[in-house]
């Protein structure tokens, strides 16, 4: 994880500001397209769980496709915290991302509120418990669904794995679809405190609001730590240029490889000023939803 000095230097860069803007816009789009479709698809009447799950999944895929190269497309405080505790992003970037995500969600909900007829708005697709779901059930549904989500996100981000193929954004979108399909009817399957915050603030829907912060955070950190420490491919197990102690290099941290010494079997690792390479243990990149 970058030190304090590097983190403060990072906050002054254009790349950092682009990343913050990306998190704001990405989370706003999540609310506008995801929650907005639930509201407008049938003029304010409830849509099927399948329809809602597919819409959110494809929306997430589009956001990852668009913003991944700038910020990792977290659009979720739980994802950002997970990359923080596993040492892949700085404290400064984490704080900036979470503020941007919450602000984006609120802005997105405000846009929906202003652009839809009053009779259609309802709760702006806020996440709420089903009448038959208890507090304990709801808490663990959100916890488990976010745990599974984070396992998938970290698996997609493991750059040392050689068994992956296909589209990473689409894979993340399908993971969201899978979780929303089984848990959407019960709690709304938020898995994202910012996604819950925006519609709740604008519509005034605060039922069990603390659960949508506490449970996804617990689930996300558990999934991230499990994958990072138990399941992630170690650089010692693969043929990485520079030997077993060189991590898979991260474009999101502005790390460049110079192959000037390729003939001698070594590589020169160059890190641009203001950035530090995280500990070279695993190949987890700062990709995510």
Task: Write up what this structure looks like.
It is a multi-pass membrane protein. It is found in: Membrane. One of its GO terms (cellular component) is plasma membrane. Its main location: membrane. The chain crosses the membrane at residues 20-40, 47-67, 98-115, 135-155. This protein is mostly helical. The protein has a single domain, classed as Glycerol uptake facilitator protein (Up-down Bundle), CATH 1.20.1080. It is 59% helix and 3% strand. The chain has ten helices and two strands. It has helices at residues 4-11, 14-40, 49-71, 77-85, 91-115, 118-121, 135-157, 168-187, 193-203, 211-231; strands at 255-258, 268-271. A two-stranded antiparallel ribbon has the order 1-2. Helix 4 (77-85) packs parallel to helix 10 and helix 7 (135-157) packs antiparallel against helix 8. The longest helix is centred in the N-terminal third of the chain and has 27 residues, at 14-40. The chain is globular. It starts with a helix and ends in an 18-residue tail after the last strand. The model is unreliable at 243-281 (pLDDT under 50).
């Amino acid at each position: 994880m970058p030190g304090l000095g590097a983190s403060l230097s990072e906050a002054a860069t254009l790349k950092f500001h682009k990343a913050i803007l990306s998190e704001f816009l990405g989370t706003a789009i999540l609310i506008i397209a995801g929650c907005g479709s639930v509201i407008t698809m049938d003029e304010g009447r409830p849509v099927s769980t399948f329809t809602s799950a597919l819409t959110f999944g494809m929306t997430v895929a589009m956001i990852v496709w668009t913003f991944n190269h700038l910020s990792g497309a977290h659009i979720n405080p739980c994802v950002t915290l997970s990359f923080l505790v596993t040492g892949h992003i700085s404290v400064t970037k984490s704080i900036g991302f979470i503020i941007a995500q919450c602000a984006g969600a609120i802005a997105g909900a405000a846009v929906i509120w202003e652009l839809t007829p009053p009779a259609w708005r309802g709760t702006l697709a806020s996440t709420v418990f089903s009448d038959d779901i208890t507090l304990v059930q709801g808490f663990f549904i959100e916890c488990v669904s976010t745990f599974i989500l984070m396992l998938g996100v970290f698996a997609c981000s493991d750059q040392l794995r050689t068994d992956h193929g296909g589209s990473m954004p689409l894979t993340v979108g399908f993971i969201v679809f899978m979780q929303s399909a089984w848990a959407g009817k019960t709690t709304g399957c938020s898995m994202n405190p910012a996604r819950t915050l925006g519609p709740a603030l604008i519509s005034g829907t605060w039922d069990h609001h603390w659960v949508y912060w506490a449970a996804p955070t617990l689930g996300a950190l558990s999934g991230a730590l499990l994958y990072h420490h138990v399941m992630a491919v170690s650089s010692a197990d693969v043929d990485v240029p520079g030997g077993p102690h060189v991590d898979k290099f991260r474009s999101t941290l502005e790390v460049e490889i110079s192959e000037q010494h390729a003939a001698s079997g070594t590589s020169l690792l160059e890190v641009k000023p203001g950035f530090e390479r995280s500990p070279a243990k695993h190949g987890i990149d700062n990709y995510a939803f």
